[in-house]
Amino acid sequence: MFAGSTLAVIAALVFSMPAPLWAETPTDVPLGESTRAEPELKAWNYVLPLGLAMFQNFAFWGFGRLVLKSDYSAVDLDTIQRNFTVGFEWDTDAFATNQLGHPYQGSLYFAAARASKLGYWTSTVYTLFGSLQWEMFMENELPSYNDVVTTTFGGAAAGEVLYRLSSAILDPSTSGGERVARELAATALSPTVGLTRLVNWEIAEEGPRPVAPDVSVDLIIGRDRLREDGSRLKMTSVSLGVEIEYGDLAPKPDFEPFDWFRFTASANLNNGTVQRGGIELLALINRHVFDCGPGQCLVGINQHYAYLDTPIFKVGTSSFGGTFGGRFVLTDALELNAGSHLNFIALGGFNSLYPPSIEEVYDLGAGAMARTFLSLDYKTNNKTWFRDIELYLSNTRYFLRALRGVSANEYAGVSRFHLHTSIYRGFGVILGADLYDRQTRPDDLPNISSSYYTEQFFLVWKF
């Protein structure tokens, strides 16, 4: 959770810069012309990210070996030969290490390839390469099925988000202190983007001001009270969160993966400790927009990543699936948005309520994620005070059939009710409630069910 919360804070600080830095209309690129001209790729564009992936792995290994004195980093020719001879197994590292740490590690491989001007799908191959090199050569533990899957697919998702956000900060038309601040902020978000720019000496190149992407950031702080089903005891916590929406869903012919995504991160603190938290990313890989009755509808392919740490369940998933939604203008002031996502989880993790051993405290398996959502947005005629009121409802369900661990079907869900009222410009309040539930249904053991809900009052600033 620490790594995820740190990234969220960095993103929040970076995007809370004065609005003119982001909103100025570029004068160097004629409006209406495409800015997606394919760069001229040379052998160096393909070789550099390979070198950076290996450099990154050696840096991680060296830190573990020389500083942490970790057991896993004691590698030699015998351990490498054994990795190739024995082959893959299921990894039993900590849940956060596998479901959160490995996607971040993969994001560094991926972002180096993207910063070298390679495309989304090609960069995913570099993420797989970096993961395999680490598993086969840099650990004395046997290579892991789940690590390769999570690092590759979770890393591609996280890497594209961090690459795009860091790129949104960069502006080669600036100089002096502003240029340094932008380069450092972009490097903080995605270190291998900064390293790639340093190696290529792009940090000193001058160029036109790029077209600013459509980015909105919500910073959220408040208190909520958590109560387990059937209990009168309420645990109060301070909630910190950030939500970033990148891009828009307007029709255009050259839509590319992650031209639209929504990233959220939150942490709830109770007596100085993290009571619960989560990181979620939903991005569109492709989409088609068409007219449907009084509004516009969308069908598309999405990529989803989630890491949820709650008192009754921990879930980590990377998935792909279909999206359907619609936007309907009901009146001059009232707008309805509704839709659903249905995704396949190739490999996900659930903390186990019946661990077969102390070392195996979570299950891994395949399954599905489904979400339905609806929002009603009422806009007033005011431009400054009380501009709009939005009601948001959603229900998200996770299902996993354990392939490793206790044979069981795992179910978990989050139902959300939020009422957001703007007060003055970007400042507003959220009144809400979330319901968390879980059902564990083992093949040969008793079923377990649990749930709790939260009562929320948040302040929100939209940038």
Brief descriptors of the model:
globular; twelve-stranded antiparallel beta barrel; alpha+beta; 12 strands; disordered N terminus; 41% strand; 463 residues
Strand order of the largest sheet: 1-2-3-4-5-6-7-8-9-10-11-12
Relative helix content? 25-40%
Radius of gyration, whole Å: 23 Å
What general outline do the C-alpha atoms trace?
globular
User: What is the averaged pLDDT score?
Assistant: 86
**Strand-residue fraction?**
35-45%
**Between the first and last Cα atoms, what is the distance in angstroms?**
25 Å
Please describe the biggest sheet, giving its number of strands, its sense, and whether it closes into a barrel: 12 strands, antiparallel, barrel
Strand runs, count: 12
Structural class: alpha+beta
Helix tally equals 9
Residue runs with pLDDT of under 50 for 5 or more positions: 1-35
Instruction: Encode the helix/strand succession as letters.
Output: HHHHHHHHHEEEEEEEEEEEE
Summary, kept brief:
It is built from 9 helices and 12 strands.
Description:
- The protein is α+β, with helices and mostly antiparallel strands.
- The protein has nine helices and twelve strands.
- It has helices spanning 2-15, 20-23, 43-67, 77-86, 95-115, 120-137, 145-169, 176-189, 191-199; strands at 215-228, 234-246, 261-270, 273-292, 295-309, 314-329, 334-351, 362-379, 388-404, 408-424, 427-442, 448-462.
- The protein has a twelve-stranded antiparallel β-barrel.
- Helix 3 runs antiparallel to helix 5 (95-115), helix 5 (95-115) runs parallel beside helix 9 and helix 8 (176-189) packs across helix 9 (191-199).
- It is globular and about 70 Å long.
- Mean pLDDT is 86; it is low at 1-35.
